[in-house]
Here is the input.
Amino acid sequence: MGVMKRLTGVLQAKANKVMDRVEDPRETLDLSYEKQLEQLQQVRRGVADVATARKRIELQAQGLQQSAAKLQEQARQALAQNREDLAREALSRRAALSTQLEQLRAQHEQLVQQEQGLVATTQALQARVEAFRTQKETLKASYTAAQAQTRIGEAVSGISESMTDTGMAMQRAQDKIAQMQARAGAVDELLASGTLTDLTGSSDPLQAQLDKASQTSQIELELAQMKGQLAPPPAAPTGALTPGAPGGAAALPDGAEPAEAEPVEAETVDETPSASAGTGSGDGAAGDDLFSLGSEGSNS
Amino acid sequence: MIVRILEDGQYDVPASERAALDELDAKLSEAIEAGNKAGFSVALAALIEKVRSSGSKIDATTLVPSELTVPHETASLEDVANLLSSEETVEA
Here is the structure.
């Protein structure tokens, strides 16, 4: 037997299973109609579920985009403070987010398509149920004719088939949503646990590093100014240092520890690939370790 | 002859197209049995195209059972194999 014939058998067997067959075909019509209304309700709820899943993905994408924008800004700040290691880290995290975003985009596209398809089938199904409602009264009135009984059977089978088809489409959509929700849950977890939340939340370690770095340079600056004020005035009087302080605000700390800054940079560059791998797999510890390494460097 | 394309709707296809449909159906069947995904996609697309081009769509107010059923356009080989395997369980 061909595939088409067998599929028809499957569809009709499923349809018959759902349908209550009773002795009196007139009752079959009424029962079938009730069942149709119920199923139509279910289908409408299913369409709403798909829409909810789609909106959830949209919200997640928004969250990821905000995080990515923040990381970009942090990278810029880090570079402005000559912290290429932090900038690199921020950008590698941002790259991981954009991979996630790309996946969400694909899921979103699928959901939109499914939603559109389901809305269309629901409308067609509603039209069928409405047609069934009007036809069943006519069929009931002419029930005694043998021909009418055949037509009742056909009408009921026909609409049950459509119901089953829509039901299976709905099931497929729901399976897909379940899969997506498992993945969406992983993104939520990622956003909620260590790695990513820290970047968007107030306790952002990257931001903390940047703040610390700018604090550090501020402290260095103040220290330099204090040293300048305390310095005994032998050969170079205060006049030589004071102009250097405001003008060399950024230059002083940089100039103060070039020898130390260099090795730290080199070390961080080596670290970076492992850090981005850690971020990609949602492992927060590697990133934090990298940060604490960096902070030792900046503090020394 | 009434043919349903899953997730699409029913079409009234002239009985004269039966042989052509059977031929495409046989290709689909072969591809499923061989697990040939590429062949499956080609055969399914051809079958759907044939039903749509030779048949006329039945409007929503006509309630009739279908004689033949074509898998939905986005169906994978696994989807159809699963549907067909539910044949036994449904009938049992």
